[in-house]
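Sequence only, no structure available. Ideas?
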Amino acid sequence: MAARREERDMKIDDRKIADFIGRKLGIRTCEACGMNAWTHDPTVYELREWDDTGTASGDYGAVVPLVTLSCGKCGNMKLFNAATAGLVDEAGNITA
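Reply:
I predicted one. C-alpha cells follow.
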C-alpha cells in the first residue's frame, strides 16, 4: 500500500506555489499571531465531499485539489484550490 501512495504523491514546484501566493497575498501577517512566517507545502492534498456511509469505497463525489500555506510561528493554515490557482488542470495533472 505504501508504494501505491508514493506513486500518487503529487508535488508542485516550489516557485510556482510561491508565485501564486505572492500574486494573491503579497506580504501579509498571520491574522492569528501577527507574524509573517508563512511556509508552503508542495504536496497537493484533496478535500472530499462528505460521504455519510462511512465506507472507503464507491463514488466519493466532488474532490477539490488543495495546496496549503502554514504559519511557521503558530500553525495557522490556509487552503487554496490548486485548480483555481492554475497549479493543476481539470484532469488533476500538475500544470507545466
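Residues 2-81 form one domain.
Hope that gets you unstuck.
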